[in-house]
């Protein structure tokens, strides 16, 4: 998954579970059936898990652009200085 | 949310938290229930009344118990435990409560009842104080919810009097 996909997955999960919880509670209260509330909510949890846990393609629309290898060679990685104990005042 | 396991964990945690909130709301909704239980108990017959060899009084009663506890049931009620206790004071104990009968009401359909029964548990005094004793018969109930706090209440019925002499 890419970053946008992860954000979508998280928002989708929160929205779906909250909606199913509200629907389940209202249905259970109106029908007077605790079991109905639990069943509707359990169905909601299963549906939500099917929707966001697997790595669906629509979560990967904004794929990450990794740096091209030829471009990477032009900017060599700085070598760490090998000398005795030294205070690092700048943080990498 | 970068991996399978991470997303599954986040989903389960969130789902269970919301389930806990729903159960709390269901328990709170019980407070909006208006209670109107009624009950009536008659002492149909005093079968026998004796003094045991160890000095304590014992009495056997036939009771006619009728009650309507339907208003105690909500969507969040699992069962109601109900028991009938005889209550009286003696010089030795300020309050004696002797349980005579109990039962479990599993659903609203069974909550309205009327029947005869002898006392399920023996009515034995701590001492020999029952002759001519005025006592109350109190119907206690405990409402056990599916989620949340159990609450208990009672109806006190007074005006009962034991026989003056053993029989």
From TrEMBL, chain A:
The keyword Transmembrane applies. The keyword Endoplasmic reticulum applies. Residues 70-92 are annotated as: Disordered. Keywords: Endoplasmic reticulum, Membrane, Transmembrane, Transmembrane helix. It comes from the Eukaryota. It is found in: Endoplasmic reticulum membrane. The chain crosses the membrane at residues 12-31, 38-59. It is a multi-pass membrane protein. Pfam families: SPC12 (PF06645). Signal peptide: none annotated. Belongs to the SPCS1 family. Component of the signal peptidase complex (SPC) which catalyzes the cleavage of N-terminal signal sequences from nascent proteins as they are translocated into the lumen of the endoplasmic reticulum. Dispensable for SPC enzymatic activity. This is Signal peptidase complex subunit 1. It comes from Salvia divinorum. The lineage of its organism: Eukaryota, Viridiplantae, Streptophyta, Embryophyta, Tracheophyta.
TrEMBL record, chain B:
It is found in: Endoplasmic reticulum membrane. It is a single-pass type II membrane protein. Residues 1-26 form the signal peptide. One of its GO terms (cellular component) is signal peptidase complex. Belongs to the SPCS3 family. Essential component of the signal peptidase complex (SPC) which catalyzes the cleavage of N-terminal signal sequences from nascent proteins as they are translocated into the lumen of the endoplasmic reticulum. Essential for the SPC catalytic activity, possibly by stabilizing and positioning the active center of the complex close to the lumenal surface. This is Signal peptidase complex subunit 3. It comes from Salvia divinorum.
């Amino acid at each position: 998954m890419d970053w946008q996909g992860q954000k979508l997955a998280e928002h989708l999960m929160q929205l779906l579970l909250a909606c199913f919880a509200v629907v389940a509670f209202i249905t259970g209260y109106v029908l007077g059936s605790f079991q109905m509330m639990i069943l509707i909510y359990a169905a909601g949890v299963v549906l939500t898990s099917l929707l966001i846990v697997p790595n669906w393609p629509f979560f990967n629309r904004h794929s990450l652009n990794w740096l091209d290898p030829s471009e990477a060679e032009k900017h060599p990685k700085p070598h760490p200085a090998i000398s005795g104990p030294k205070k690092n005042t700048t943080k990498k | 949310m970068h991996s399978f396991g991470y997303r599954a964990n986040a989903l389960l945690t969130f789902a269970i938290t919301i389930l806990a909130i729903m159960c709390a709301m269901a328990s709170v909704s019980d407070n909006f229930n208006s209670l109107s239980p009624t009950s009536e108990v008659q002492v149909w017959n005093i079968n026998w009344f004796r003094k045991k060899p160890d000095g304590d009084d014992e009495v056997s009663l036939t009771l006619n118990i009728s009650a309507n506890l339907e208003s105690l049931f909500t969507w969040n009620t699992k069962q109601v435990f109900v028991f009938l206790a005889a209550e009286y004071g003696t010089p030795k104990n300020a309050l004696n409560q002797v349980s005579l009968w109990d039962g479990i009401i599993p659903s609203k359909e069974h909550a309205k009842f009327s029947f005869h029964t002898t006392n399920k548990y023996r009515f034995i005094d701590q001492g020999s104080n029952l002759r001519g004793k005025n006592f109350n018969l109190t119907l206690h109930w405990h409402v056990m919810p599916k989620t949340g706090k159990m609450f208990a209440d009672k109806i006190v019925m007074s005006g009962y009097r034991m026989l003056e002499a053993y029989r």
